[in-house]
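quick one, 512 residues, struct below
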Amino acid sequence: MTRAATLGSMLLLILMLVPPASLEAQTKDDTIVYGLQSDVQNWDPPNSVLRESIILGYNVFDHLALRDLKTGKVGPSLAVSWKNLDDSTWEVKLRGGVKFHDGTPFSARDVKATFDRVLNPENKLTARGNHAKIKSVEVVDDLTVRFKTDGAYPLFVERLTAQVMQSDKVIREKGHEWMQENPVGTGPYKLVKWAKKQEHLLVRNDDYWGPKPAFKYVRIRIIPEQATQIAELISGGVDIIKAVPPDQMDVINKSGQARTSTSPILRTAFIQLDQAGRSGKNPFQDRRVRLAANLAVDMDSIIKHVINGLGDRTATTINPMAFGFDPSVKPYKQDLAQAKKLLTEAGFPNGLEVGLMSTGPTVEPGLIQTTEAIVADLAKAGIRTKQRFVGEVGPFTNLVRDNKADPMFTWSWGYYSVFDADAILYDVMTCDQPYSYYCNKALDDLVIQGRSTLDTKKRAEIYAKAQKLIHDDAAYLYKWGLRGVWGVSNRIDYEAPKDEIDRMFVVTPRKK
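---
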């Protein structure tokens, strides 16, 4: 190798190691640091079921509509208005003057390309089920798009809050694989770099059409250990963490450096029982065994003593904040004698042993502790568990999707911006959905009815029937609606969001 070539290689190496000037300029005052327990699978929100991917997506992409969490009403975002032309046709007017991060103008073509990509079954995107009622999307003009639906579609506007808008140009020219790691949105931040399982760096989009974020940079640090997260929060290494264990709230609140913020969130926790037999033949295919499991556990006591009241007991999977929630359906109460009797009737007079797969508390505060308490109660009734722990939530959800879960597994489901019972019933309780281990054609029929009428009263009645059905069938082991616990640095203003979507662009420095 010549001396010139050697010097050239050294110079290239130096240039690779020196960060761009804009990144060198980062300071603590212009950077917000957000801690996550596990990394995203990708930067393509419609291709991920993980909460982390969806949350980060809200900071880089925009949606057609946006919910005001104070009023609960859905309002404009990239769409400025929408109306029914008839029961199965919606016309949406778009915001002008919006650009993608690469400078391409946002238009109706991007809306059509986004939904065409999601709805194409060959793409196998996880968001497809959310929009399956949409038959076609037509471009009327640059700022007008028309949706044709399969009959009446009451969730249309709600679902506008849950689909990020992606670029027609990127979809055509770059393609699916490139999009997994290279998000091009219209949102308030742009991705600068992603060091997998370590951190992400976002920079403010100074051409953003909406309010500009207070902080120029967002660092997302991946910190698997909760104890380390809390230590970093108190020492100033991070500004926001989530899913703080209830028994650690005092540590944060008494530190003088940070505080906790709590809120009921639109997520329900439960343990799936494999009624559908996706893990193979198992005891939970018998309703009596599923009912015994529900009667074995004192959920009220666990809420009170293990998670310090940070849960709202539910009789089914439906969250109390969702449209269609029916408070007249009452949760199961612990009855060990009846649980044992049911097991005997099902052919297990000496109890049974069954696999239980669980993961870490990336979403659910105190998940490990509450699972231990549930396991102890189940054992009292004769249901002994053989536990399998999968620490990372990505591989955990992949096992569920790929029919490799155990007959029992811990689960929670977030509705995010869709405050409607359909957002959980369809996704994790209807037949043949990737994350549902329950199949009951009677429930499927009710879900289809509920998403096929614009009559609000009728929809509420349908969801009441659905809740009675899944309660009486003891479809899953029901737990509670979650209350999220965030740890927040005293240097910033931030309140716990009810839809659990952390929007870094609303974080502001705290007034001194």
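Confidence is low (pLDDT under 50) at residues 1-23.
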